[in-house]
Amino acid sequence: MTKDFWKNIAKPIIGLAPMDGYSDSAFRRVCRAVNPNIVTVTEFTSADGLSYGAERLRQKLAFHPSEQPVFAQIFGKNTETFIRATKVCEDMGFTGIDINMGCPAKKVVKSEHGVALRKNTDAACRLVEAVASNTNLPVSVKTRLGWSDASGLIPFSKAIQNAGADMLCLHARTYMEPYNVPAQFEHLYALKPELDIPLIINGGITSLHDGYQKLGNCDGFYIGQASFGNPWVFSEAGAPASFAEKLPIILKHTEWLIEHKGEIVGTREIRKHLLQYVKGIHNAKQFRNQLVHVKTYADVRAVCDTICNYEVTVS
Ligand SMILES: Cc1cc2nc3c(=O)[nH]c(=O)nc-3n(C[C@H](O)[C@H](O)[C@H](O)COP(=O)(O)O)c2cc1C
Predict the structure, then answer these.
(1) Residues 13-70 pLDDT 10s
(2) Which of 18, 75, 82, 187 has a CA between 20 and 30 Å from the CA of residue 248?
(3) Closest listed residue to residue 141, CA positions, set 125, 120, 119
């Protein structure tokens, strides 16, 4: 993959935002089954862990060939471990590397990783420079407006670009703002003319239509939480009306999670998605208990069949 990937890809770029606990291989495949033109990013993964050869992390990061283009998101602050982690991702066949400079988790910030890099432009640039000059893969950065306001956004973004980033994705909230505060895209519209690299916007986008409306002069958008239980957020046609019509994708999601993580972990992890998939079904709470206790693919199939039958009786 060439460094020009982000410049050459058709615009607007549409993608599934990286989300720890959600944007794993199975969910990325599901979203791409709904819309094969989207790009996806892995859950954030420790550069230190990867560089020390943690097999568990490699397994977590593994992807299916049909997912391309898929980007490995890594976090950390040490340039040497970042370079080694980049090599691991290269060997695994990722399309590109995405550097996390947005994670607000206490542990991450305390270690001066994630969004903490937003406060330290020199360290952030050293990281980008180290990765970009040691790989032929495109390197992107995902970050936030700022720490408590957007005042340093333009100089920070230009510095990141000059350090070698090929794309910038901005979650249009600051570190201090919770996820339910409206995203402030006006800062991104003002930033865009200052940059030569593509700029992807993110934050609170609820549908493709919403994304097109909020895109402004930018190059694309990522959708995160609005995809929970609703990978059809990436479909121009929207979600099917009935649970029965959604079932083939729900079962594929289950099958791919089990394929990646085995039946015990896969069925444990599908539970939270199943709870999201049934949202909106009349009186869905009566199925909660069954949904949170599935232990096999057959259990998932059985409870989903029950829900389909129930749906027919109430329609
Ligand atoms: C559960 C959860 C996990 C997240 N994990 C990551 C992550 O691993 N890497 C990252 O860059 N952002 C992460 N984010 C932030 C999202 O990528 C995105 O920026 C944020 O959710 C705003 O977009 P949205 O309003 O469309 O969800 C996470 C968000 C959520 C809700």
Answers:
(1) 999 999 999 999 999 999 999 999 999 999 999 999 999 888 889 999 999 999 999 9
(2) 18
(3) 125
Task: Return the exposure string of 75-112: e unless at least 16 CB atoms fall within 10 Å of the residue's CB, then b.
Answer: bbbbbebbbbbbebbbeeebbbbbbbbbbbeeebbeee
Domains: count for the chain: 2
Token code pair at residue 57: 């992390």
List the CATH number of the domain containing 99.
3.20.20.70
Range of the domain at 203: 5-234
Residue nearest atom 29 in ligand 1 by C-alpha distance: 19
Pocket lining: 17 vs ligand 1, CB cutoff 6 Å: yes
- Tokens linked to 58: 């490699």
| Residue whose CA is at the smallest distance from ligand 1 atom 15 | 19
| CA 305 / ligand 1 centre spacing (Å) | 32
Instruction: Assess whether the C-beta atom of 200 lies below 6 angstroms from ligand 1.
Output: no
Residues 219 and 279 in one domain: no
Which atom of ligand 1 is closest in space to residue 223's alpha carbon? 26
Q: Dump pLDDT digits (tens) for 139-149.
A: 999 999 999 99
